[in-house]
């Protein structure tokens, strides 16, 4: 079950006006098609590892350090091919020795990581696990491509999971996951700066897969969609997320979003939004919350939880050494 | 235009009502590339009819679009 949340954004902000100064586009074009007005960009100052460490540290920064026993980092933009990001993140958090690994599932990476971390807890490998989504997606587009550059930003988000019972607030419902390699070419980047995306087909698949997975995740825990207090969709584009909400008949007021301020932050998107919304009061303890994502692969997923009262969190503490 | 199409354009695609006339082009009505895809998905979901993005883009006016949809729905 979820018992902590945190996020990190690089300080450098790129506005639509900054982009229109160097690309043949307009603020109106970007806002009407994506809902995005600005995004945070790491540039050369912050690595994916740095962002992951900052987001993870925020989840643990409640006084005494928590005994985290496993770490999964979901990312499509690791700092290097080898080794993985997660062991370095664990060490920088003072967690050297715990199982730590990366996982790549595009913008659905965070939900895939949640499922595998919950599996580690169920298997007895760990009692608590940190799940981090960290991406620097702003590195992927061709810098001259006016259609994809505006879409992406950098950031990280994290949650802490602990063993718990299914009837507790914070307990994850079954994580519904899927993939379809026949759509591999719809979102692809063979190297940074070379992203290719078929916007129309991505839109079509994204709304279909997220709507279907969301219905499955709600049904799996016996919820009607009318029971959902907060829909937390991967922040790809406000046109996609609004369309999904309409397909699910979830009113605008129950849909959380931050794409206008951060753009598409990949695997960071959902935990970043959870952290912001929990902090500013849009997401409250007791809210029946539906998470859903779609990304390159193609990949998609959805799950549910009743948002917990994080002030009541009790975790095994680690003795300071 | 039939009420069904008008309703989709106003309530689902959020296009401005005062621009939705039979002789308006899709551009004039406020369609962008995503709105074309949105309409195609909505028509498939609601009426079970398959009208591709390019079929929608090719129509000259909203009146023609309405005729295309009505024809598909009646199975002709």
From TrEMBL, chain B:
Keyword Phosphoprotein on entry: yes
Top-rank taxon, per record: Bacteria
InterPro entries linked to this entry: ACP-like_sf (IPR036736), PP-bd_ACP (IPR009081), Ppantetheine_attach_site (IPR006162)
Phosphoprotein in keyword set: yes
UniProt entry keywords in alphabetical sequence: Phosphopantetheine, Phosphoprotein
PROSITE patterns: CARRIER, PHOSPHOPANTETHEINE
Pfam families the UniProt entry points to: PP-binding
Carrier domain ranges (all copies): 1-73
Protein's recorded name: Carrier domain-containing protein
Organism: Streptomyces caelestis
